[in-house]
């Protein structure tokens, strides 16, 4: 899609969180009402006819659009969080990121077999975070699962899409 307004408002932060990483800061898109509207509208248009019943947002930037899109779709919202942040019984997955190891959790009762799930996060790079979340969601055996990102980094060596099989549809709003 690569909306010019979104691209123009996206901030690049060099050497964050470690030297050599060119961090794509989506907070500049969240603070601008036109950018926020564009992103919610574009994701809604992609999924309005898919029967989504739950949107899973990944901590923490995935919470912003995930919740807004869930509201727009008439779906529930589920948080996928770092360890120790969810108060009830959870399932967890540990994975490798491009600059370290991390773990995410989701409540045991978050998703049912009757759900159609959209998992949302801000950025696809190596795919580790989303692959972990996708594995957690698949463990609930929902009817169908979709994946969406604001940005996909098309940089040699990252190959984030390779973490997923052909059984899941992946969409992005921007490819950089």
Briefly say what this structure is.
The chain is an alpha/beta fold.
Can you describe what's shown?
The protein has 176 residues and is an alpha/beta fold. 28% of the residues lie in helices and 34% in strands. It contains five helices and nine strands; from the N terminus they run αββααβαββββαββ. The chain has a five-stranded parallel β-sheet with strand order 4-3-7-8-9, sandwiched between helices. The chain has a two-stranded antiparallel ribbon with strand order 1-2. The protein has a two-stranded antiparallel ribbon with strand order 5-6. Strand 3 (54-58), helix 4 (61-73) and strand 4 (76-80) form a beta-alpha-beta unit. The radius of gyration is 15 Å and the shape is globular. The N and C termini lie close together (11 Å). The mean pLDDT is 94.
């Amino acid at each position: 899609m690569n909306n010019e307004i979104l691209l123009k408002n996206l901030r690049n932060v060099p050497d964050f969180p470690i030297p050599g990483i060119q961090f794509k800061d989506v907070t500049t898109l969240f603070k601008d009402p036109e950018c926020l509207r564009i992103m919610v509208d574009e994701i809604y248009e992609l999924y309005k006819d898919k029967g989504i019943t739950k949107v899973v947002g990944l901590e923490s930037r995935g919470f912003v659009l995930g919740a807004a899109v869930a509201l727009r779709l008439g779906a529930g919202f589920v948080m996928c969080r770092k360890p120790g942040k969810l108060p009830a019984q959870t399932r967890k997955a540990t994975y490798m990121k491009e600059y370290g190891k991390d773990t995410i959790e989701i409540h045991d009762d978050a998703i049912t077999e009757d759900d159609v799930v959209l998992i949302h996060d801000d950025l696809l790079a190596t795919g580790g975070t989303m692959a972990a979340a996708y594995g957690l969601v698949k463990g609930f055996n929902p009817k169908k699962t979709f994946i969406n990102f604001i940005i996909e980094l098309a940089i040699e060596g990252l190959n984030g899409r390779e973490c997923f099989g052909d059984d899941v549809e992946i969409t992005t709003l921007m490819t950089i």
